[in-house]
Amino acid sequence: MNELNEIYANFVVELRRGVSNLVVLSQCQQPTYGYQLVKNLAESGIPLEGNTVYPLLRRLEDQGLLRSDWDTSTDKPRKYYQITETGSQLLAQITSYWRDSVKNIESILEA
Amino acid sequence: MNELNEIYANFVVELRRGVSNLVVLSQCQQPTYGYQLVKNLAESGIPLEGNTVYPLLRRLEDQGLLRSDWDTSTDKPRKYYQITETGSQLLAQITSYWRDSVKNIESILEA
DNA sequence: ACATTATAGTGTATATCGCACAGTAATGCA
DNA sequence: TGCATTACTGTGCGATATACACTATAATGT
Questions:
Q1: Å separating the CA of residue A31 from the C1' of nucleotide D18
Q2: B 67-86: CB within 7 Å of strand C
Q3: Which structural domains are found in chain B, ordered by start?
Q4: CA–CA separation, A5 vs A10, rounded Å?
Q5: Would you give per-residue pLDDT tens digits along chain A (111 residues)?
Q6: Distance from CA of A35 to the nearest CA of B (A)
């Protein structure tokens, strides 16, 4: 017997999916590293775990939307990711798509 | 070029994911059938195709969030889905979650 | 007579997530 | 001093849900 909480949790997972692309790209307008993202996004109410963030960053880099540089100047080496020109273009597109969707969904919910 | 469009399309797919649960549950506050959902949602700017909607309706029914009745009184038999009490509770929860998320994401995008 | 609409469905490949786990170096604390 | 926790980056696997490409049937439009 499926418990309601389980179903709810799964809905939340699905809702968060895709949003991660959007918020990570957005955050990488400033050079950022994975662990920082995990912390910042949790504070911002969009908790993404490391096992989600690290593969995501690599995917985005593979797609040419981010680029990365290791900073080894401190004791804790950090891999900084930063958005590319291509990434910026895509970010603008999906931000626009996102806002349109939000409006559409809100009007469905209110109807 | 084509590559970017593909990436964009995939982002859109991921963003739409989960939203389908929300809008379908919401629409089923009035008894509705699959084909009508496909048409209505397309008009509302949330295009979901039959191969997405029909399995989704069945899942929601399996989870006890919707129930269905065949209407065979007309020449075209239609399977009407309607939200259950449990479904209504969950809809309220995920609607609330959705609106909170939207606020959080918007504030990340603006930062 | 032929195409399109209306209506419901399936099978398979693919993408991404969560959970669990691996691994190292610094820092806090008992 | 010794041990736990934090900081930091990752991997492997199973589960879920989507897109794409179909199957199927009956009515309606031209």
A1: 32
A2: 76-79
A3: 2-110 (1.10.10.10)
A4: 9
A5: 468 899 999 999 999 998 999 999 999 999 999 999 999 999 999 999 999 999 999 999 999 999 999 998 888 899 999 999 999 999 999 999 999 999 999 999 998
A6: 17
